[in-house]
Design a protein that fits this description.
Shape: globular
Helix content: over 70%
Strand order of the largest sheet: 1-2
Number of helices: 19
Strand content: under 5%
Largest sheet: 2 strands, antiparallel
C-alpha cells in the first residue's frame, strides 16, 4: 500500500463523522461560537485580575467558582432535563441566554459601571445557564451520528473546541489592548448567531433515535447506574481531581504572564499556545477507534510531568512550550474520559450520566479554584502549578491502583518480567424498549429443551 493510499484511508477514519450533514452543520456553528466563548473567557479573567482588582488571584478563583458551582448544585435537575426534553430546542434557549448575558456584560463594561460584585453575579448567572447547556450539548453530539461513530464525534467536537481555543484568546488579547474588554463581550454575543443558525438548519428527522424516557425516571437512576460501574466511579474521581486543582488555567496563565512582565496580549498568546497542544490531543483522539480507560491514566501522568516542567520554566518562551504539553495531556485525558463515558453508558441514561460527569468535572472548580488562587497569592503562581501537578499525580495513582486491583494489569503469561494490560472493550448495551402490555404479550420467550435444562 502506498503512502498516499494510507493517507486516504486514515483521513476518512479521523473525520468520518463529517459524512453526516447534521454533524457538519453543528461543527461549523460550534467552531464559530466557541471562538467567541474563548474570547469572553479570556476577557473575563483579565478584567477581574487587572481592572476590577489589583492583581487579586483569589478574586479570579471566586469568579471561576461561581461559574462552575451551578453544574454541581443543579446536577439533580440538569441531567433529567437533558434526557426529558428535545435537546435541540433546549440548546436554542440556553445559547440564546448566554448571548444575552454576554451582551449585557459588554454594555456595562463600556459604560464604566461594572464592579467586582456585579461581575460575581453575572459569573453565577453564566454558570446557571451553562449547567443546563453542557449536558444537553454533550449528549446532543451523540444524537447527531450513529452509535459506532459517537467516540469520533466527541473527539472532533473537542478538536473544534480547541481550534477555537487557539484563535479566541489571542484575538481577545489584541482586542483588549486595542479597544478594551467591553468589545470582546459584544463580539462574543455576535458569534452565538452561528450556533443558533446551525440549530435551525439541523434536520430533526435525521437525528439518532432516542429511547423513550419513562415518566418516573429520575436523576437517582443515573447515580445508581454509575455506582454499579466501578470503572465509571474511578473515571469520575480522576476527572474531579484534574478539574478541581489542575485545570485552573485562567488563574495560572494570567498570573504567570504578569510575573513574566506581559500584558493582555501576552496572556492571550499563552492561552492560544495551550490550545495548540490541546488540538493535537483532540485530533489524535479522533483517530482512535474507541476510548480506552488506560489512556486516561497515561494522560494524567503526562499532565503531572508537564506541570512540573511548567513550574520550573525560567523564561516566558520556555513556559509557553510547556503549556503545549499540558494542553495535549489535558485533552487526551478528558476527551478519552468523555468518549468512554458516552460509548459505554446506556442510551436512556446518557444525559443523566453526562450531567454527573460534567458536574464532577466543572463542579470541582468551586472547591479547587479558590485554593489555587490563594496559593498563587500567598506563595506565587509556580507553587499553584505544583499543587495541580500533585493532584494529577494522585489521580494517576488511583487509576493505576484500580488497574492492578481489577486484574487488568498483570504479569505477562509468557514473559517472566513483563507486564500486560487487558484491552478495555466498550460495554455492549441494548437500549430498553418502552414497556407496554402489548410488548409483554407479544415478546417470545425461549423455553430450553430438556437436555439444556439438565445442563
Amino acid at each position: 500500500m502506498t503512502t498516499a493510499s494510507r493517507a486516504r484511508r486514515s483521513s476518512p477514519a479521523m473525520f468520518r463523522s463529517f459524512s453526516v450533514f447534521n454533524y457538519r452543520v453543528w461543527f461549523i456553528g460550534a467552531l464559530v461560537s466557541n471562538v467567541g466563548a474563548w474570547m469572553q473567557a479570556t476577557a473575563l479573567s483579565w478584567v477581574v485580575l487587572t481592572q476590577l482588582t489589583d492583581n487579586d488571584a483569589t478574586a479570579m478563583g471566586i469568579t471561576m467558582a461561581l461559574q462552575f458551582a451551578p453544574p454541581l448544585l443543579l446536577v439533580g435537575v440538569t441531567g433529567w432535563v437533558a434526557d426529558r426534553f428535545d435537546r435541540r430546542r433546549l440548546l436554542f434557549v440556553t445559547q440564546g441566554l448566554l448571548m444575552v448575558l454576554g451582551l449585557i456584560i459588554g454594555v456595562l463594561l463600556l459604560a464604566g459601571v461594572m464592579n467586582l460584585w456585579t461581575m460575581y453575579a453575572f459569573a453565577f448567572g453564566l454558570g446557571i445557564v451553562a449547567a443546563f447547556d453542557n449536558p444537553a450539548r454533550q449528549a446532543f453530539v451523540s444524537d447527531l451520528v450513529a452509535r459506532e461513530n459517537a467516540s469520533n464525534a466527541v473527539a472532533l467536537n473537542a478538536a473544534s473546541f480547541n481550534t477555537a481555543r487557539m484563535i479566541g484568546p489571542a484575538v481577545a488579547g489584541f482586542v483588549i489592548v486595542a479597544v478594551g474588554t467591553g468589545w470582546v463581550f459584544l463580539l462574543n454575543a455576535v458569534t452565538f448567531m452561528a450556533m443558533l443558525v446551525s440549530l435551525i438548519l439541523i434536520r430533526a428527522n435525521e437525528l439518532a433515535p432516542r429511547p423513550k424516557m419513562r415518566s418516573a425516571a429520575r436523576m437517582a437512576d443515573g447515580l445508581r447506574y454509575v455506582r454499579g460501574r466501578p470503572d465509571l466511579v474511578v473515571t469520575f474521581v480522576m476527572v474531579f481531581l484534574l478539574g478541581a486543582f489542575g485545570m485552573n488555567f485562567p488563574i495560572l496563565a494570567s498570573t504567570m504572564a504578569i510575573e513574566f512582565g506581559q500584558e493582555a496580549d501576552g496572556y492571550g498568546i499563552l492561552s492560544s499556545i495551550l490550545a495548540v497542544g490541546s488540538l493535537a490531543g483532540a485530533l489524535l483522539a479522533a483517530r482512535r477507534d474507541r476510548a480506552r480507560l488506560r489512556l486516561v491514566i497515561v494522560g494524567l501522568g503526562l499532565f503531572a510531568a508537564a506541570s512540573v516542567l511548567s513550574a520550573i520554566a525560567p523564561l516566558y518562551g520556555l513556559y509557553a512550550v510547556t503549556l503545549m504539553l499540558i494542553g495535549f495531556a489535558t485533552v487526551t485525558t478528558l476527551t478519552t474520559a468523555n468518549g468512554y463515558v458516552q460509548t459505554t453508558t446506556e442510551p436512556a441514561l446518557r444525559g443523566r450520566v453526562l450531567a454527573l460527569y460534567m458536574a464532577i468535572l466543572m463542579g470541582g472548580t468551586p472547591f479547587g479554584a479558590p485554593i489555587v488562587g490563594w496559593a498563587a497569592d500567598a506563595f506565587g503562581p509556580r507553587a499553584a502549578i505544583l499543587l495541580g501537578a500533585g493532584a494529577a499525580l494522585v489521580a494517576f495513582g488511583i487509576g493505576l491502583t484500580w488497574l492492578i486491583v481489577s486484574g487488568r494489569l498483570h504479569r505477562h503469561e509468557t514473559r517472566r518480567f513483563a507486564l500486560t494490560i487487558d484491552e478495555t472493550r466498550p460495554i455492549t448495551v441494548v437500549a430498553p424498549e418502552e414497556f407496554s402490555d402489548e410488548v409483554a404479550a407479544t415478546t417470545p420467550i425461549r423455553v430450553p429443551d430438556g437436555e439444556s435444562a439438565r445442563r
